[in-house]
Amino acid sequence: MAAKSPRFLDVFESWKRIADPENIRIKPLSDRFLHPQGLAKDFAEAAGIQHGSLDYEMPVVNSTFDYSILSILQSKPAVFRNVHDNALFNYLDKFPELTKQCGKSASLSSSLQALVMDSFEEENREMHRRYFPHLEYDDVFGLRPETEQEPPSLIQALSEVTATQFKMLQVLDQEVEKLKQRNSPTPWLMSLRNLLRRWKRSAQKRIY
Q1: pLDDT of 105-121, one tens digit each?
Q2: Rounded Cα–Cα distance for residues 33 and 192 (Å)
Q3: CA distance 72 to 192
Q4: What does each C-alpha distance from 84 to 52, 81, 88, 98 come to in angstroms?
Q5: What end-to-end distance do the CA atoms of the chain give, in Å?
Q6: Residue 127: which residues within 8 A CB-CB, separation 6 or more?
Q7: How far apart are CA 72 and CA 199, in angstroms?
Q8: d(CA 25, CA 46)
Q9: pTM over 0.85
């Protein structure tokens, strides 16, 4: 919020400066405003691309990892070759217990979500005026209705986070051991394995 990032309006205007504005179409990235068969077909039809061979049965998934595992990886950037290296994430994505499907659970509380949206309201209003005037503002930028239950107590929340983290570390440790047995460990794999073991020991201490 302090950095006002991302600046979607600036990005849209930058594209208009380098491309024909008449051929730029900006749509909200939401199922309600896209072709029912998904983003690929929506884009193909808008761009006039022949799309008969596209596979529309492929599931649309936007998964993110639990904060516990992200905090581990954030502390060890050496496991990535570069900022675009998704090999490790692609591997971890095989384990559903490590991921959260986008939309099933919020990563921010409703109060924080409202605070973020309020801080971007002026820019969002301008985007709505320029690009989505035919849509209701709240349909595009409004928060989802509150469906969450009362937040758990701090002790309960910490207990659940610790238990989840410990479970994830166990799963990862087991998989790393399997890889170790099949192949000679690469430097990043050894680094990750040692990191997981330290976190596993730390989690055990917190639990007991």
Answers
A1: 455 677 888 899 999 99
A2: 41
A3: 9
A4: 31, 8, 11, 21
A5: 38
A6: 8, 9, 12
A7: 8
A8: 8
A9: no
